Amino acid sequence: MNPRKYLKVYKKFLHTSFASELEYKTNILIDLITAILSLIGSIFLLSIFFQNNVSIGDWEFEEALIIQGIYTILNGITNTWFNPNLSEIVKHVREGTLDFVLLKPIDSQFFISLKKINPSGFLEIMLGLCLLLFCIKINQINLNLSFLSLSLITVTCSICILYSLWFFISTTTIWFVKTWNATEVLRSFLYVGRFPLNSFSFSLRIFFSVFIPIAFITTIPSEVFLGLSQSWKILLEIIVALVFLITSRKFWLFALKFYSSASS
Amino acid sequence: MISNLINRKILTLLKVQYSNMLEYRVEIALWAISGVIPFFMLNIWTNNSLNESINISNVMLSRYFLCAFFVRQFSVVWVVFSFEEDSLMGKVSPYLIQPLNPFFRYFAQHLAEQITRFPFAIIIAFFFFIFNPESIWIPNLGILLLSILSTFLSFLIQFLIQSIVACLCFWTEKASSIERLLFIPTLFLSGLLAPVVSFPEYVKSWIYLTPFPYLIDFPANVLSGNPTNIAGGLSIQVLWVLLLFPAFKKMWSAGTKKYTAMGS
Predict the structure, then answer these.
(1) Is B89's Cβ below 8 Å from some Cβ in A?
(2) Smallest CA–CA separation between B32 and chain A, in Å?
């Protein structure tokens, strides 16, 4: 492992994928409108839930907006990095081009996870950040160093969990070849992350914290934002994130043993 | 004679596509699972007793969301994505020579997929009834036929809209991003996530002028037995089909003149 080499390679990745993506300039504009509309849509949906209720699962409208903000940021990150790269794994396996990746003198997981970038996701991240700033204002959260560092830690953990989930599902391609639809299932389940965990019934709450840890992804960072989170929850999130990261790494190395190249 | 020929063509297309689709049973099962969002929404609605304010009982609401799930299952359209791939790979060229509009091929593909999907949707509904035994009901034959008709019309409207968007592939390479943009209002306004009755007045005043509530909300209301104007809804669905079909034909004839046979 040579961090400087990887940094250099990553710069090259950024350069090439930006160059190819900027060929479709109108596409980026359309993606921006899509991101804005989708945020408006989910706020509209929230407003329907709140039109006759003050709180849902002990979350008020202004507080639920924080979850929307964090969800939007994470969705932007998914669209920028995870989605374009990990859907590529399916292609690599089906067409047998994973051979070329494995032959390169660089870590295969690094190459596969960061090769591409989709700049339109940045706009979504910005949108989410703007919403979060607005939420900080309307919820009168006072910014201090411990708050900032705690929220940064939990959001980073969420990103790690999210990445591991995506990577985990994409890795199963090595056995099943076509798991494009499995990512679609994950995507639809992640949709639930737009709402506070407490608004679901008890059994679903268990499901979303044990099997698919959506609870950890958006609800805990939002609680940190409101200053409600207990320290054991934050600690738990860090542990879960580490376990997920390590498992996804192990799983990738394990799966590679079963890779039998295609069409060559 | 002519009708006989058309019949034979359609039957052959359907048969071919059905056997094609049967190969991807796991994929289609995953597709079906990824449509479970309405059930999560139902959980939010009933768990927070949000439905009291819109005068729908728990049972009726759970039937509504189950029907919304069904309608969505049988009106999913992805023709843009198929057509975009085919036109980028140059596969459209041989189709164009054939004495059959290539969209018939996609149409048959969708119908075949729906037939393959049917058992999986039934299994999901079965599980739904295990968890919500009080919402079991059997719609009478007339209602069942009407709702099948309106679901099919909803599918037809979406198929035509997407085919129009797909024709844009003749001008730009990436028409699918426009489809992703159009999907956002479809998602939030069609009634998949919240019944249209619950929408605030300022949306209800104009939403019936758009095709969106007729895509999921109307057929789901018919099937679940929630109050709705059946004759009015069906005639507006037919009206949309009649409006969109000439638009599609125009786009198609303008587009084929523009065709540049990419990738071949």
Answers:
(1) no
(2) 9
Residues with Cβ within 8 Å of A46's Cβ and at least 6 positions away in sequence, in order, are A61, A64, A65, A68
In angstroms, what separates the C-alpha of A42 from chain B's closest C-alpha? 8
Instruction: Provide the 10 A C-beta neighbour count for residue A142.
Output: 7
Q: How confident is the model over B87-146, as pLDDT tens digits?
A: 888 888 888 888 888 888 899 989 998 988 899 999 999 999 998 888 888 888 999 999
- Can you tell me whether residue A2 is helix, strand or coil? coil
In this predicted model, what pLDDT tens digit does every residue of B152-186 receive, in sequence order? 999 999 999 999 999 988 887 778 888 989 999 99
Q: Count CB neighbours of A220 within 10 A.
A: 25
Chain B residues close to A27, C-beta within 8 Å: 174, 177
Residues contacting A140, CB < 8 A, separation 6+: none
Q: Does A53 sit within 8 Å of B53, measured CB to CB? A: yes
In angstroms, rounded to a whole number, what is the distance separating the alpha carbons of residues B152 and B177? 25
Q: Does A211 touch chain B (CB under 8 A)?
A: no
Helix (H, G, I), strand (E, B) or coil at A102: helix
How far does Cα B42 stand from its chain's mean position?
Answer: 20
